[in-house]
Predict the 3D structure of the following.
Amino acid sequence: MTESVHEAIQALIRSEGEAVELPPPHARPTVITLSREAGSNGDVVAEALASRLNLEVHDRDVIDRVAQRMHTDASAVSALDEAMGRARDLWLYSLFTGYDLSQGSFKRHLINVLLSFGRIGGIVVGRGGHLVLGRVATLRIRLTGSPEACARRYGEAHGLDAAKAREDVDRINHDRSRFVWDMFHARLNDPTTFDVVVNTDRFNDPESVADMIVDSLNRVSPEM
């Protein structure tokens, strides 16, 4: 399954006219992709990793760079971000502005932006980075957890009651899964597309999770 997914992604990249020639393993920058469920401490872990490894976190700036490439403002592109189902509502925007906000255009620019981060290194958060950078990433991480635990953490972080927190977590996770499927026809919860999957119910201290990921980074084979 993993090979078929990566081959499909590489074929898609080649079809967009983007070269996929990789430097030898010892010359590649450190690239960590971090996929996370809402409430799994993904943002905290990403920042902790960035501090430990002196790397930049690429999250919101992915969309900012896509917007630059699409010659439009980031707020419009945000409607496409991790919720491609909303893209169908943007045809009026495209009609009146002349900007191409189609799914195909977004996908092309997203792939190119992710590949650019793959060349310079860093921690790439979400947006199918583990698939696009599957041949480049030093380590591909997935943070998950039970709906109850994730909703509790999300509610505490955002000041929400249990019912609203669970509603938001379910919606965000659905949108993220739908985004990856619409973009890459891959299941976000497919463990074979990751190197390390961490259940944050059991490993609930973000600092300890970051330490564990750094340890995994030091042990991973450079041959890919």
In short: The mean pLDDT is 83. The longest strand covers residues 31-36. The first helix runs from residue 2 to 15. The chain is about 55% helix and 10% strand.
